[in-house]
Amino acid sequence: MSWVVEGTSPFQGQTAAAMAVRLCSSLQRSLCKKRGRFTEWRHESLSKHFYQTAAPQTASALYTQEHQAIRESLRKIIDTEINPYVDKWEEAEQFPAHQIFKILGQAGILGVSHPTEYGGSGLDFSYTIAVAEELGNIRCGGVPMAIGMQSSMATPALSRFGSDELKRQFLAPTVAGDVVACLGVSEAGAGSDVANIKTNAVKKGDDYIINGSKMWITNGCQADWMCLLTNTSTGASHKNKSLICLPMKSPGVQITKKIKKIGMKSSDTAQIFFEDVRVPSKYLIGEEGMGFLYQMLQFQEERMWGVASVLSQMENVIQETVNYTSQRKIFNQPVLNNQVVHFRLAELTTEVELLRSLLHRTVGLYIDGNDVTKLASMAKLKAGRLVREVSDSCLQYWGGMGFTDEVNVSRFYRDSRLLSIGGGADEVMLAIICKYMGILPTKK
């Protein structure tokens, strides 16, 4: 549908778009004639006469030159130590976590927001988000997720609430990349419903005796220790849980299954059982009974991290689709020339940029000490849905090639589906948003 501009304008009857073009052209000719260089300027963009430079694609009010320097340093590692081997790791369904984490640890990537006393850089959370965005340039989703588990999912509660002794024993070597960490929350019967976990730890002398199981454990097959959420008493489900550092080589820990998945193949995912596992009570993170709260706080950082990690992935898939459709021809013209294609890619690019703005606003508020639960949930919800839109639309424009495993878009199609499930399903995000809006029905 065209918008017709009415009135006495000399452009009466023209569409709004056509009128805008004519107005800009008229203004441009006027500017150029004043400078006596109409023939030189007539093909240049009008905006160049008002702005010195175009805004760089990575421009952000949240990021400084220091953020960009960290990203550039990480990008070199990605290009030399990770991307050349991704296809091999995807085929093997596991990447060498200890080897890669050691490289990243030496570069200071695994602890940018952790305290300097334990090997971190002590920078605010925006630097962790900058790292997550850059990790999106890895040519698969599994490796970034595993790195995020090490730096931003298994360790925030320990970093914030753990004792000095505990942080020196578990956090410092994790930041250095000397050990691999995992997070034990989900169970076969308790994924989104974290309050319903059944694993329990009974105090016996100076130890906890742990029994139960965990499911969907990222890094679980290679991990040296687990940040374990377990019941430590009876009573209200949000007051009877604790977080415990559990060494994975403890007697009674059994990795019973390496789970096969449709995506995220280079990241190993385990099912783990605990049978009378004895752990010193000093391995408790913070206070007993506070584990549920600690984990909810930990989830906020995990969700923001997850959103950040897919921004570059989406941008890369869109750009690769632009490149492919500009070369691929059907009916004697490039696929990209079809309005339905280039308009859709423009819409998706706009949505990605809007998601980035929401995330950066959320991170900025979080750094200032605000409760961002609602905004983080909104960003997580939007990201989980947008990655599906981007991957599905772009795969469609690749035609038959998109249905093979030879191109990045098909891997992204498989990998990205997890975002609406892991770290809090879309439905959980909606419930949280409804709660903050005051429209979530209360149980009677």
TrEMBL record:
Q: Which residues form the Acyl-CoA dehydrogenase/oxidase N-terminal domain?
A: 64-178
Q: Give one GO term, molecular function aspect.
A: acyl-CoA dehydrogenase activity
| GO cellular component, as recorded | cytoplasm
What is catalyzed by this enzyme?
A: oxidized [electron-transfer flavoprotein] + hexadecanoyl-CoA + H(+) = (2E)-hexadecenoyl-CoA + reduced [electron-transfer flavoprotein]; tetradecanoyl-CoA + oxidized [electron-transfer flavoprotein] + H(+) = (2E)-tetradecenoyl-CoA + reduced [electron-transfer flavoprotein]; dodecanoyl-CoA + oxidized [electron-transfer flavoprotein] + H(+) = (2E)-dodecenoyl-CoA + reduced [electron-transfer flavoprotein]; hexanoyl-CoA + oxidized [electron-transfer flavoprotein] + H(+) = (2E)-hexenoyl-CoA + reduced [electron-transfer flavoprotein]
Task: Report if keyword Isomerase is assigned.
Answer: no
**What name has this protein been given in UniProt?**
Acyl-CoA dehydrogenase 6
UniProt xrefs under Pfam families: Acyl-CoA_dh_1, Acyl-CoA_dh_M, Acyl-CoA_dh_N
What's a single GO BP term from this record? fatty acid beta-oxidation using acyl-CoA dehydrogenase
Domain Acyl-CoA oxidase/dehydrogenase middle stretches: 182-277
Look up the record and name the cofactor or cofactors this protein needs: FAD
The annotated pathway is: Lipid metabolism; mitochondrial fatty acid beta-oxidation
Record-linked Gene3D superfamilies: Acyl-CoA dehydrogenase/oxidase, N-terminal domain, Butyryl-CoA Dehydrogenase, subunit A, domain 2, Butyryl-CoA Dehydrogenase, subunit A, domain 3
Question: What is the superkingdom listed in this entry's lineage?
Answer: Eukaryota
Query: Which family does the record claim for this protein?
Result: Belongs to the acyl-CoA dehydrogenase family.
Which keywords does this chain's UniProt record carry?
FAD, Fatty acid metabolism, Flavoprotein, Lipid metabolism, Oxidoreductase, Transit peptide
Ranges of residues in domain Acyl-CoA dehydrogenase/oxidase C-terminal: 289-435
Which InterPro entries does the annotation name? Acyl-CoA_dehydrogenase (IPR050741), Acyl-CoA_DH_CS (IPR006089), Acyl-CoA_Oxase/DH_mid-dom (IPR006091), Acyl-CoA_Oxase/DH_mid-dom_sf (IPR046373), AcylCo_DH-like_C (IPR036250), AcylCo_DH/oxidase_C (IPR009075), AcylCoA_DH/ox_N (IPR013786), AcylCoA_DH/ox_N_sf (IPR037069)
PROSITE patterns (UniProt xref): ACYL_COA_DH_2
Question: Where is the organism placed in the taxonomic lineage, from the top?
Answer: Eukaryota, Metazoa, Chordata, Craniata, Vertebrata
